[in-house]
Amino acid sequence: MSGKEISDFEKQRLANIAERDALLKKLTLESQSSGLFASPKTPSNGTKPKPKKRATPKVKVEEEVIAPRRTSSRLKGIAAESEVAKRKAEDEYDAMREADRLKRMRRTDSFTQADMFVSGQKLTADSLISVDVITKGVAKPYERTFGADDIDKTTDKDLKALREEMNSLQLWESWDPQSKDLFHYIHRSLLANSNACPIAGIKITPERVYSMAFHPTESKPLIFAGDKMGHLGMLDASQEKPAAGENDEEEEDDDPDPVLTTLKPHTRTISAMMVNPSKPTHLYTGSYDSSIRSLDLEKMVSAETYAPESTNIDEAISGVDMAPEDPHTLYWTTLQGVFGRYDTREARKDSNVTSWGLSEKKIGGFTLCPTQPHYFATASLDRFMRLWDLRKLSVDSPTPVAEHESRLSVSHAAFNAAGQIATSSYDDTLKIYDLGAKGFESWEQGHTLADKEFTPDTVVRHNCQTGRWVTILRPQWQLNPQSSIQRFCIGNMNRFVDVYSSSGDQLAQLGGDGITAVPAATAFHRSKNWVVGGTASGKLCLWM
């Protein structure tokens, strides 16, 4: 074979190389034309490679005019970086923001039950309030961590008696959704009226329950629940389902509905509520719509008690409280870290409204001490639980009496009548601080505690990882227990409600058949051993 001759193999190899180079060149040009890569440098001969032109999509003008959906600027022939496209996007965004703002803006006027009514039954004064009333780690659903064995091993007689009493509480099932009768009721309601409330005996609000409260009356359990969208549910749980008659089939459609009413006094989440301790006919509700409203339970009229002067000011309320001996002063906290005080006897003026910036981050919850109301505790996102003294609280530079830092954010700080504070934290602990043992009743104005003096007396491991779809777990004390043992309740991620004593001993783990969600929002009746929990679906669980 001479040097000038090329073998068949070499010819095939050169052909493959040429084919590969042509393919790579084609792919490079197509990528440049679609904007995936930067344009190549101009060749030495001065000619620029011509990118392959893409076919322009055809747009039917008639379809563009009548189509209700949004179309891209490219299809409309508007350059991506043009001022027209920018202006159009900004206008659409501003319009959406304004529509959302108007929808969430609070209502400043007073309105009656008819204005707020959403579903259920419209209540009269007699049906709701009567004379006697006026005067831990990953959750494992349904796995108990406290039960009969723990009670049997208890050696303290008083503690054992209380554990037996609390564990004897029964789930309220007058309108049990699992029962056959209610199933038929649900089926009939859905067929008869799509707007009916099919599980009225259990579902107290349309959306996730954020806050709950008992009325202080001992004659019957009156329950209030506030949800994510500003609905207020009210239930009289003393009612009982009528006994079935002889002609069940003929009278099946005449079953009376349970007394349940859902109103909408707020436009956003009802984050806190309380019954006026000196005027039990008035229920105060605080909301993320920046307002605190008072609902007259006799007249069923809701009026705005406090709100910023302008509806454009956003001060989402996170907590509401009142001192037992002062029915005219309202206290609240906000998600902006502000603590406020307002004298309700006068018209809204700057002179009777005082506010303090107590935290750079949101205050999730607070309470006044029932017996020493000049002391109050706050829990905030900055991981601190702080104790404050209203008698010496500077507006310009507020200084706490004491503070304690947790590893993660603190969700709530609840005071009881014995001077004990219970907190829940995202570090999966419940902490109890006993100020009564430190003699706080005799502290003078200006008294402070060093960090080493203000540490929790008891720490209980408790799963507080609620995530995005479950309401934050907050401890709630029984304010007037009928024994010397103080107690509080809190939701359990395993779909129970736990009850603890002030010394950290677990008293009960309340559950029952049919509870399929976490009863995260809880409340303890002031004096009766009644406990209620609310779930993300708006349902309630009541133990009595």
TrEMBL record:
Residues 33-60, 240-261 are annotated as: Disordered. Pfam families: WD40. One of its GO terms (cellular component) is nucleus. Residues 33-46 have a biased composition (Polar residues). SUPFAM superfamilies: WD40 repeat-like. Keywords: DNA damage, DNA-binding, Repeat, WD repeat. One of its GO terms (biological process) is DNA damage response. It comes from the Eukaryota. Residues 246-257 have a biased composition (Acidic residues). InterPro entries: WD40/YVTN_repeat-like_dom_sf, WD40_repeat_dom_sf, WD40_rpt, WD_repeat_DNA-damage-binding. GO terms for molecular function: DNA binding. Belongs to the WD repeat DDB2/WDR76 family. DNA-binding protein that binds to both single- and double-stranded DNA. Binds preferentially to UV-damaged DNA. May be involved in DNA-metabolic processes. This is DNA damage-binding protein CMR1.
